[in-house]
Amino acid sequence: MNRLIFLGTGDAMGVPRVYCDCLVCTEARTTGANVRLRSSVLIESETEDFMIDCGPDWRRQLELRGLRFIPTILVTHAHFDHIGGLPEWADACRWTGNRGRLYAPQEVIDTILRQFSWLSGNLDLIPVDQGAQLGGWNIRGWRVNHGKNGYAYAYRLEKDGFSWAYCSDSIGLNEAEILPLHNLNLLVLGTSFYHEEAEYATRSVYDMLEAQELIGRLKPESTVFTHMSHDVDVTRNYGLLEGISLAHTGMSLPLE
After folding, report:
1. Metallo-beta-lactamase domain: which residues (predicted)?
2. pTM to 2 decimals?
3. Cα separation, 222 vs 233, whole angstroms
4. Would strands 252-254 and 3-8 be described as parallel, antiparallel, or unpaired?
5. pLDDT value of residue 60
6. What is the pLDDT of residue 157?
7. CA–CA–CA angle 165, 168, 169 (5° rounding)
8. Which of 42, 113, 182, 193 has a 20 to 30 A CA-CA distance from 210?
9. Residue 127 exposed, middle or buried by CB count within 10 Å (0-12, 13-18, 19+)
10. Sign of the dihedral defined by the CA atoms of residues 229, 230, 231, 235, in that order
11. Which CATH fold topology does 1-252 show?
12. Is residue 185 within 8 Å of residue 224, measured between CB atoms?
């Protein structure tokens, strides 16, 4: 069975934020519904399991799933909350004698190697600019606007007539960037706030109100919001459009 598992659903800082006593961070420290590690997912399939992104919570995310190793990771972009776990992964490869496979666009690989030049000693870094196939999924990536933070990549995955996309870090997508998001069974979209009031030029990820406008155009069969900051309370009913849900740690969805 093909399954999508949310290992982390938080923004760059995660929830709770160590310095913050807001209601959401306080709830996360007590009952824990709003605890959010940095955004990452695990795709399980009959032939190969792989992750998308490897943030600084990578080790904790694997431990929570009872996993001791993952051989393959697909990376969306080279920001710390998406690659901060790569040194730990490479070290795990060294200790276990397994050579990991990191898939990413070439420009992302180049940036990663400027930060962690020694990773190639334990990982194969494989460009996906011409597409890739993992776990039987045909994968296509493309650049998306990440606002003040530059760019990231989104991925569309197709297998056995099922199509879904992972777009964790984007805002204000143009028509070319939106095109691959049409005709989806599932859209996983990053939304850091319900309604972000900061000046638009300073922002980097959709809020939920803006995302709903985009979803109204795309009309995927279902949508899951991830990459959520401490502005978002998953115990609250936001009155979102039908078919939209909020991701939570460990949430599992069939991909078929």
Report:
1. 37-227
2. 0.97
3. 20
4. antiparallel
5. 97
6. 98
7. 130
8. 42
9. middle
10. positive
11. Metallo-beta-lactamase; Chain A (3.60.15)
12. no
**What is the DSSP-derived secondary structure letter of residue 39?**
S
Residues of the chain with pLDDT under 70: none
Find the DSSP H helices in 130-249: 175-178, 208-218
Structure tokens, 59: 């080790």
Q: What confidence score (pLDDT) does residue 1 get?
A: 87
Tokens found for residue 138:
């045909």
* Backbone region of residue 119 per phi and psi (left: phi > 0; alpha: psi in -120 to 50; beta: other values): alpha
Q: How many residues does the chain have?
A: 256
Under DSSP, the state recorded for 168 is -
Distance from C-alpha of 108 to C-alpha of 86, rounded to nearest angstrom: 13
Do residues 138 and 159 lie in contact, with contact meaning Cβ atoms separated by under 8 Å?
A: yes
pLDDT tens for 67-87 read: 999 999 999 999 999 999 999
